[in-house]
Amino acid sequence: MHTWIDHLRRAACALDAGRHRVEIDDEFADYASLSASCQDYAWPIAHGESYREAWQRYQQNENLGNLIGMVAQNNATAPGYTELGEKIATQSKVLTAIAVADSASAKARD
């Protein structure tokens, strides 16, 4: 049986009692700015085939709840995933950060 971890494994060795030591080759992105991080995070939603319908609908109606729900259909890892996404997306700090980023983007375009 193969698991998601098989492709990340860098080294493994057998220990006693059927246990194994595994070193994971896990990589994390490093971004120069919050904006760059958000752009990279959102890119698959705006450009990925599996999210095409969700993104097109969002561009037409700007209904964030529907977008989150449709994205969750592909990504949900637990019950309540959609509700958690909506809760995070509507937090005042998140909304403020988005407004600041939008303002900075608009100024950069001018």
Fold and architecture overview:
By secondary structure, this protein is mostly helical. Helices cover 57% and strands 10% of the residues. Strands 1-2 form a two-stranded antiparallel ribbon. Residues 1-6 have low confidence and may be disordered.
Core attributes:
57% helix, extended, 110 residues, two-stranded antiparallel sheet, mainly alpha
Order of strands in the sheet with most strands: 1-2
State the distance separating the first and last CA atoms. Answer: 55 Å
Helix percentage: 55-70%
Low-confidence stretches: 1-6
Largest pleated sheet:
2 strands, antiparallel
Which H/E pattern describes the elements? EEHHHHH
Content of β-strand:
5-15%
Mean pLDDT: 81
Shape verdict:
extended
SS class: mainly alpha
Number of helices: 5
- Gyration radius (Cα, Å) is 19 Å
Total strand segments: 2
Task: Spell out the blueprint of helices and strands.
Layout: E1 9-14, E2 20-24, H1 34-47, H2 52-61, H3 64-75, H4 81-89, H5 92-109
Q: Can you give me a brief rundown of this structure?
A:
The protein has 110 residues and is mostly helical.
